[in-house]
Amino acid sequence: MKKPVSIDDAGERLSEQLARTGRRLTAQRRQVYNVLLLKRDHPSAEEVFMRAKSAMPDISMATVYNCLETLVTCGLVRQVNHDRKATRYCSNMQHHHHFYCDGCGGAFDIDPGGAGGQLRLEMPPGFRVRNFEILFRGYCPECAAKRKQGAPVTIHDASQTSCRSHRRPLIS
Question: How far is C-alpha 109 from the geometric centre of its chain's CA atoms?
């Protein structure tokens, strides 16, 4: 997977994409985008709000939702949905898949490998695929280790665990 975009380069990209879609750069949009770039752990809107609020105390939840919607519309961020849980936001716009940990609830980027992650599937006549994502489910290394030791693996606030910051591909 490509190296994450630097904050400076991302600021330029943010300005360009907003201008291209007829929107202006605001301090709030920059802050929300920076939150998503600084910790690429697929946070929910509520998590983005809490992180943004630490640097910008006057930001409201409604503003965060509006900023996230704008960033998605501009193609700078994508929504990631996992079962019926809260929508999460991913700033990795490279083609990739996701691994969801059934223990901690964490979401991790998985590099598709190969040339552009090409996959050949037989589609019914008339169907045209625009994009695809493969979903992997299982246990991250931290939760797998707990299971191996016989410790109960419980759903917990994954934003407080080290396993959500794990960036290496988890499968070969």
Answer: 8
CB count, 10 Å around CB of 111?
Answer: 16
Give residue-wise pLDDT tens across range 51-63. 999 999 999 999 9
Distance CA 36, CA 77 (A): 8
CB count in 10 Å sphere of residue 115 = 6
Return the closest-CA partner of residue 111 out of 125, 97, 91, 129.
97
What pLDDT score was predicted for residue 23? 94
The verdict on pTM exceeding 0.70 is no
The shares of helix, strand and coil residues in the chain, as percent rounded to the nearest 5, are 40, 10, 50
Please identify which residue in the block is written with the tokens 């849980």. Answer: 85
Which amino acid appears at position 36 of this protein? L
